[in-house]
Amino acid sequence: MxxxxxxxxINTPIGEMIAAASGEGLCLLEFNDRPALPKELEDLKxxxxxxxxxxxxxxxxxxxxxxxxxxxxxxxxxxxxxxxxGTEFQKQVWSVLIDIPYGNTRTYKNQAAKLGNPSSIxxxxxxxxxxxxxxxxxxxxxxxxxxxxxxxxxGLWRKHYLLEFEAKIKNNxxxx
Length: 176
Hints:
By secondary structure, the protein is an alpha/beta fold. The protein has helices at residues 37-47, 58-71, 88-98, 108-114, 121-129, 156-170, and strands at 3-12, 15-22, 25-31, 50-54, 106-107, 142-143. The strands form two sheets. It has a four-stranded mixed beta sheet with strand order 3-2-1-4. The protein has a two-stranded parallel ribbon with strand order 5-6.
């Protein structure tokens, strides 16, 4: 018998997201219009030996609450149990992403150095792009060495929004 991955929608100020969770944790949080979404769901089916069904799950309900709090400026860290199947290198990259403080950015070069392999900049960028859990694993906080916004599967306009939003909250600016 296959495991089940439950999916449901989460509305945000920057577009609808799809959340997916299994008994092991949240395994996907992506923008519904992300071109890679169908492949990510297929990969999860294989990696977790699971079928995907639409429906509610406690972890999705928690994710909805925490994402809503994030967009209200009330949450800077997440406490959702995650399930991030991938290679050991991908898991290391995603772990380093989680360590980027709210409202801050790092470069791909910084991320590679944090992993102890400064020449792995491209591999780090590729693993960032394979992150299936947007916002909670904050790949939007990684920028190019020259400060340019590059490489965000949810769209550069969303990356720009998220970075500006976090900067305003961090610096106690009024959003209204």
